[in-house]
Amino acid sequence: MAQPLPTDRALPGTARRELSLLEGLRAVPPRVARGHQVIPLRYEGERLVVGARDPGRPRTLDTLRRLGHPDVVLEPISAERYQEVLGKWYGPAGDVAELVSGLAAAPSADPSLGPGGAPELAPASRFLELTLRAAVAERASDVHIEPDPRSPRVRFRVDGILAERVAPPAWLAGRVIGRIKALAGLALGECLFPQDGVLEFQTPAGPVAVRVSILPTARGECAVLRLLTVEDSIPTLDDLGVPGEVSRKLVAAASAPEGLIVFAGPTGSGKTTTLHALLHTVDADRRNVISIEDPVEIRSRRLRQVPVRRDLGLDFAGALRSVLRQDPDVILVGETRDAETAQLVVQAALAGHLVLTTVHAASALETFDRFGQLGADRALLAQVMRLSVSQRLLRRICPYCAGEGCFACEGSGLKGRTGLYELVTMSGPLASLVRQGADPGELRRAARDHGYRPLHETARDLVRRGVTTPAETARVLDVEGPRDLDGGAAR
Questions:
Q1: pTM here?
Q2: Distance from the CA of 118 to the CA of which of 19, 43, 221, 316 falls in 20 to 30 A?
């Protein structure tokens, strides 16, 4: 883990405002940052504070003033901090900014072709390639490209939050969408109906698959690109920050020959990633492991992965019936959302298979009620359930500024995420209550006797340890406010 860097302090009597990545790239373009060894730090009132390796160089101030910063001050920074910011935030993101800076006006020549008539060198192709490289470097999960006749927008979803990035000029935005369609094998002339596809692009670390969704809107077609995880980058349970006791219980449940493991939580809470990390603890050489997913977002050579194809009549239930004829030992059902799938999942676990699945439920205890609502036999559910897990993802306090806000965290004070987990292990008294259809309050009291801790209690521990903030836990857990998460009033 990177060591915290010194926190910059505002001048007395001034309002400090940290720069976002986009603001920083606009304030100090990459060529200036590299040529003069400077990086933007913050605004203090109307004054721009810029970190410099050599604050005494007169040409540096002159250059920054010519960029439109009449009130600018240079502040000394270490070589380590300069290289950290330059490499991480001026690397791929800076390449996009430099490309766009030279594309302010539409060219007179055909912009769909690059030098020598090569389409792969055209501005749209270069913009898309550099944008995807920047998304990979920032560990973004999604890229939103939103053309607009006046002000196109590009946003990355990083740590679950959308943040604006460098966008192409308006004349180029539509051509970028066209390039995406071409690479994903979609109909170029179709602009009235949504389209979905997959494209692949090369990075220095190897190919990355991207799921493409094109949606027509009143202002033009928008694209959302989901960056899919490949085999070599699937995180382990340790990588995900799963606490030791939680990890041991997960691995023990996944080592069982049969039973049901259920993960609960909203979309985007990391359930699929944790399930794949857990499946990598399973001995896939001695066990037949098959997954059914919609879509296959994390590609693994250790599993046989079956994509759901509703357009062809293959839903979760139909795929599961076919998988059961493939002599499986372990089955991952991406989501249990209907009565037929819920009943088949329970029956498969009862028949001697280990089944892992997800449901949309607010807590680990509510998974029992959710299966009951879907028509699953509660007595059988109590018999096969091994572990019910609920998880969320919390942003961590930024290691570079200790929560003060800096260029690396775009002023939020938060960077990176950690998992928040609650587990319910089936016991005799709990199984009896599940069979009776007991309410969550009764289930909670029985579960506490076997080590159950709700999410908000674990969140309070993370706040006390300085991992995250009360406001972040309140945002993710959807409570009224951060009171009681820090042991007192919200700070």
A1: 0.83
A2: 221
